[in-house]
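Quick one - inputs below.
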Amino acid sequence: MANLELFDQDLIDNPSARVPVCLVLDTSGSMSGDKIDELNRGVQLFFNEVREDEMASLSAEISIITFGGTVQQVVEFANIENQTVPNLTPTGRTPMGEAVNLALDVLEARKKTYASLGVDYYQPWLVLMTDGAPTDDITGAARRTSELIQNNKLTIFPIGIGAEAHMPTLQQFSPKLPPVKLKGLNFNEFFLWLSQSITMKSQSTPGEDVKALPINPWADLTL
Amino acid sequence: MQTFEWKAASAYVIGRSHEKEQTLCQDRTYTLQENGIQVIALADGAGSAKLSHLGAEAVVRTVSHHVLKQFSSYKEMDSTAAAEQLLDVIMQELQQLAEQLDCEKQELASTLLFVASDGKSYVSGHLGDGLIAELNEGLSIHSHPDNGEYANSTYFTTSKDALVRLRIRSGECEQVGAYFLMSDGTSSSMYRKADDFLSPALATVASWLEEHDEETVNDALLQNLNKSIRMKTFDDCSLAVMTKVVCSNQSDD
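Output:
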């Protein structure tokens, strides 16, 4: 059957469908000490885990927006192999609303880039982590995330860190699922879970409901 | 004067994702020829539906036999009426199967692609993702994938808007040398979305049927899907092809 063989050079290489993930991280002054150290370790682990997984590394595209004093996109969407993991430092107040608005803007822009290049993509993910309460108005940002979620255009993971995290605020961003409090400072477990979830998402096929992995390794589920 | 006939081959293989999860291949293909009419059909079972491989199998078989039998009337029918009639047939089959399996019809959801032709005319149908291509003077797309916004969204036989999403077409095809059906797994190796480009490998596959019998090409498709095409995706892969081949040279006098 030697003459009935297709060769790799005859076949087309399409880019993998992308999973755009935006981490919106609280780097305000209250995150000083162990919290920011553990968050930095968790983010580093997250990048390592995604890079090590064949499918996730081809599919995941990660951006990081921080809100501590000012709002900054410290990591822009790109191939993960070309990205540098930042060292986050805590400072200033907590402009959460502005940060979420920027995250939604960059996710929307990324989707347009994919569409213009003929690259398929999955529903964007937004991870919002805070240890406190916002110091700006979140009304507009919360309305935007709620509308997107209701229209199945966004998945949000609102995570509270420590006892001072204002969970009712996080709830405003997430009309379907309640926010979850991180168990202690188990950032590593959370980011491990996130990378595994991306792997599952990136292999999902039409009509497939991706079952969420159990969150108990990192979530504080006590009432 | 030369006369022609259709020859067809098809194959489907499990994707690496389903293999890893130890689940079943959800793609199915079917070929059927009777009375000079060739039908090829392909269905990709919905990822979330546990019995969608059985739904896909039932749909390709039922649609192939129905369209072959009703080929003349589908050729003349308005596309909306044709979609209504075909979807009725599919729903009856899925309802019956659901009762046998004691499950909901949604558990049997799949996409659907088919082409039927007597050599002069064709009838085609497409619901959901995957791709139908044809070989005329060159390769061209007969029917594009119909996805939602996201990579893992499309339309299935049991979708509430299946009727408006089922695209039935008919027309002349005397100049067409081959038709191809592929699931989205296979189209990731055969179709470049960015510039609507089809791989010349499709023409190569079509030419195999000119020189080899259908069984041999079935085997070759299976081997190539396994060895090359599924390595470029995590999804199940399937391909069906029908090629118009010279079957005799008759004297004009």
